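Issue: copy button drops trailing tokens. Both records pasted manually instead:
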Amino acid sequence: TLMGERSFQLLAGPQTGCREITQFIGLIPPGRAPLHAHPHEECVYVLSGRGRLWMGEEVAGELSPGSAVFIPIGLRHSLENTDTREVLKVLGVFSPAGSPAAKLPSE
């Protein structure tokens, strides 16, 4: 099931004088985000909630508080919130600095 919009709170990045990374909190409602890829490396740490990491069309792993994942530049991926009641809350970091909304064109 595809979900509604994710939301992001930027913590550090170009807007705060940080030139090398962007750090953000991501809130992911129940459901699966569309597959997408970014023009930067991404590290995600799960703060609360449960879900799945998709790499392409395959489930790459289950997510729970304390899970950490690395997503290389250009790799199509998606996070899925498998809980119908709780938001999946993640701490994310991009390098080089960039917007969580920045995506590479779909294939």
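Record 2 (pasted manually too):
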Amino acid sequence: FLERAFATAKLLDVHFREFFVATDEPGDPSDQVEWIGLLRSCTAFEAYCKVYTADLKPERAAEFLLLNSEFPHAIRFAVDRIQQSLECIHDITGSKRSGSVAKLAGRLRSELSFTPLDEIREDLHGFLGKIRKQCTQIHTALHQVYITYSIEAALEV
């Protein structure tokens, strides 16, 4: 789920940078193809249409891929599962060292849960960059806590 959150954030960021034009006028039909392509690449087109109908708007596509907690390829869904998985790992291992990873995952989940949509829209590029950075921090912490830990750290358990 960590890789999925990172990849979706990167895909959204690049797509918005390349294809988004803020305007109230209907876009070029080829733009619609690009946005449909984005949703299809995340296996999200049909799910998006069930939520918003086929009236494709880039802002809604971003909101769907970023904040939908029920769609398995959305960032919010992935982050929720990251936190659940970390809780399961902690319960199984009983490791005291897992707190740092849990805090990082909790911070990311809070960002997605409590950052106002207007704030996200205002600086989508910055917000997506922050998500990718936090995913990288979680990955690094996971690696340190569960894979490359020292003997001393293992004996603390």
